[in-house]
Amino acid sequence: MDSIYLIIVVILLGLAALDLVVGVANDAVNFLNSSIGSKVAPLWVIFTVASLGVLIGSMFSSGMMEIARSGVFYPEKFTFPAIMMLFLSVMLTDVVLLDLYNTFGLPTSTTVSLVFELLGAAVAVALFTLWTSGSGENLGDYINSGKALAIIGGIFISIAIAFVAGSIIMYVSRLIFSFNYGKTFKYLGAIWGGIALTAITYFAIFKGLKGSVLVTTNMLSYLEHNMGTALLYTFLGWSLLMAMMQHLFRIKILKVIVLVGTAALAMAFAGNDLVNFIGVFMAGFDSFRIAQGVAASGGDVETLYMGRLAEPVVANIGWLLGAGVIMVLALWFSKKSRTVTETEVNLARKGEGVERFSSSTLSRSLVRGSLSLSKSVSKITPGSVKKFIESRFEPVELENKASFDLIRASINLTISALLISLGTSLKLPLSTTYVTFMVAMGSSLADRAWGRESAVYRINGVLTVVAGWLLTALVAFIASMAVGLFLMWGGKIAIVIMVALVAFILFKSGRLHTKRKSKELQHQQVLSSEVELVTSSNEEVRELMNKTLAICKRVLDGLEDENRKMARKAVTEANELYEKFRDKRDYEVVPTLESIQINALELEQEYVQLIDYSYEITKSLKAITESTYRYIDNNHTAFSKEQIDDLKIIFKNLTDVYASYAIMDKNGDYSRFDQVTAMRETIIELNSKMTKRQIKRVKENESSTRSSILFLNLVNESKIITLQSSNLMKSHRNFKEQYAKSLAGRDTKKVMMNATLN
């Protein structure tokens, strides 16, 4: 037997390990978001509970193993070489697809991606076989399309039902408990806990423990035939235990409910979705072992048909437990799992803050429609009813700055568990990710977490995630089919190329994720003290002045030498500077003013102006660099020596102004600040003179149309930079003087207090 098949098995093993990491990074949101969003416990406690659930669940087999082998195609129609290429296509596609979703923080369904990758790869291999064999068979003889259609139907049904159920039950629950739920929960808490834990137990048995060695077939059969009685006893038992814990031991039972639900969802995830990541490898490994046996007996593996893959299979406990350990490690150490979890928590959180998504026409239309409907309903609702409802939704300050409270966290877990277990008992295909996400979104909507300030962004975020889900099946199918055709056509060379390509994509996505997280952290930066505010502002003003001169120098050099590379570098630096101060203005200023408790309005006013003036300077730099780069990139006529010399004069004067102010800033002596004002007037007059010179060159046909347009734009933008730089310097001087006065005033008060005490 050719050694390439052993190499494919080794590659499948490596890809399965990678798939476990990227898979848990995406699916961790299913069982972590309620605990993390409500801050039910320290992060290490949440991760420990989830890890125990994953390890227990990993020891259970699942019916998904058969899907990897024969769920969407007929293995008896595929030869051993073809089936190995099919499995390799699936794993190469799955690792990249899930990793890309993780990079952008979008939760998706690993089940849907696996099924449609299997379908796409099977279609590719079948088509290639039909084209090369001329057997006269049809594609339908190879593909079991019914399974895929059932899953598509399950997607749409589960999305709608989960959102509606989460919304209605959350709304009713909030009317019962309100946000200040302490008093009401004292009397109804045990019953609430009994209902929630009964639902979670039902879910654990039907979704997590079904098929495990811990629950026998006879026991499951008994439970299925006596479910009503079993649920009643379970409810009574849990309610009694919750009552004892709440009233005798003073334990916060909501925390118990949330942590138990987290463990149950983690267990079900590992028990049912684990094979999404290793099922294909195990199918490939078993195929290799079957072929080894045939080769040992003298058979030809090249013509061996893999009908034996359709036989029932029992998952190897060693492989499953090893996979569980990898998943636990990924859960603790994967940064991308935090990114996906943050997406859902961010969309569901209570209150305002930095939004990860922008608005869209559809989201704005939905919000306007909802507001109109709300006003119409409000007109016909009795005043007493409106007053009661408003009192139940009156917000309170959440502990530890949690994104939502424990009532909503328990509802998210309970409703998700109920819907998933109901779908499982009815043998309906659905996605754990879709259900848990849409329940969380429905409950956040009903809980009024989406206010007027955030609704358009949250709704667009949900629409973006749902659109990603709908694209998952299509992208998975097309990508795996393309990879499958390439592997079948290219053989060993294609395998080497694809493995190298996947490694490159994973490397680039890792760097992209790091860059995105760094940018998000900048958005979330809030200066928390007066000293930090002053230090940061001083550093940024000096940095801006230095970078402004450096960028202008690159623009001049680029124009003079027609250096496209230099101009492009100037564009990159200017855009980075522009985005930095744009984000500071949008995301830092107001939160910083809210967080810093100082009585210095003048100082805070100057801080706001510093950011505004800096933003205006960077906006002009962005315009200058982009227009210059386009001019050079399009190979237009080079600037004349006179034009370059005029620009150099403007640049020299700006450099002199900056250098003069830098000396004042360093020495803290602004007695000669009038020099800055005088230099500003000089540069403005110079700009007017340069404009007249260019007009003269135009009239004398010494300059082309495009060079004239660019020159005049550069002169105009440099004038804006000069004016805003002057404003920036003046504001920075005032900022430092106000801070000095503030410190002096405090010292005087301190001296007077000490004198009084003495």
Distance between the termini: 97 Å
Poorly predicted residue ranges: none
Structural class of the secondary elements? mainly alpha
Q: Counting H and I runs of at least 4 residues, what is the number of helices?
A: 23
| Structural Rg | 33 Å
Shape: globular
Query: What average pLDDT do the residues reach?
Result: 84
Query: How many domains?
Result: 2
Task: Give your account of this protein's structure.
This protein is an all-alpha fold and 758 residues long. The protein folds into 2 domains: 519 residues, no CATH class; 233 residues, Methane Monooxygenase Hydroxylase, Chain G, domain 1 (Up-down Bundle). 80% of the residues lie in helices and 0% in strands. It contains 23 helices and no strands. α1 packs parallel to α16 and α2 packs parallel to α10. The radius of gyration is 33 Å and the shape is globular. The chain starts with a helix and ends with a helix. The model has no long low-confidence stretch (mean pLDDT 84).
Structure keywords:
single chain, 758 residues, mainly alpha, Methane Monooxygenase Hydroxylase, Chain G, domain 1, 2 domains, 23 helices, 0% strand, globular
Summarize the structure.
The chain is an all-alpha fold. It has 23 helices and no strands. The protein is globular and about 95 Å long.
